[in-house]
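Moderator note: this is an archived Q&A kept for reference. The question asked for a predicted structure of one protein chain; the sequence and the answer are reproduced below.
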Amino acid sequence: MSDNINNTQMCEPTLSSGPIGCDSKWRWPTILEETLSTRLYDWLVDTGSLTTRLKQYCQTFTVEVLTEGHYPLSDDEKIKLNLTDNIGFVREVLLKLDGTAWVFARSVMPSNTLTAPGAELDKLGNRSLGSVLFNAPDMQRSEIEIAEFDSQSKIYSLSHLFSSEPKASLFGRRSCFLLGGKSLLVAEVFLPDALAYK
């Protein structure tokens, strides 16, 4: 975690209190299509590798791990993954382009997904999850859902730690992946500096 985050004043939101989460009202993209810019909508519904797309816009692509470990999942996440267990493996990261955070990503999965063949999803370190998923020959992906994160959301508040460009609200997308027959849920929220908003 960078020094500027650790030294944030106590009155500001911090990253030291565990996972941030991606609580929102997730919807089918067509419901919000008319209210979003063409550029933003294109980024939200793109089914290709986000990692690969982001790398086109920078010299240096890095992954900063914020939280990784076993934590409680939201009821919505458990429903999406068809889980009865309250605890799952959670990984939250920032995807940075030339040092600037463009995307907050949250991946949640049942513990048995960690052992998906060739994955070792708990040992990614500073590699992106996309580098594993989109190189897996048997990977399957569900339909994409999108959501708005307004000024009341935790992600919106925390985005001020990464950017000085305020937005009225942030937008993200999520989908389920099957890897080796095992499931995981990946959500990606575009932060204020992302090209998606330009």
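Archived answer notes: The helical segments are 3-6, 29-32, 38-45, 50-55, 75-80, 130-133, 154-159.
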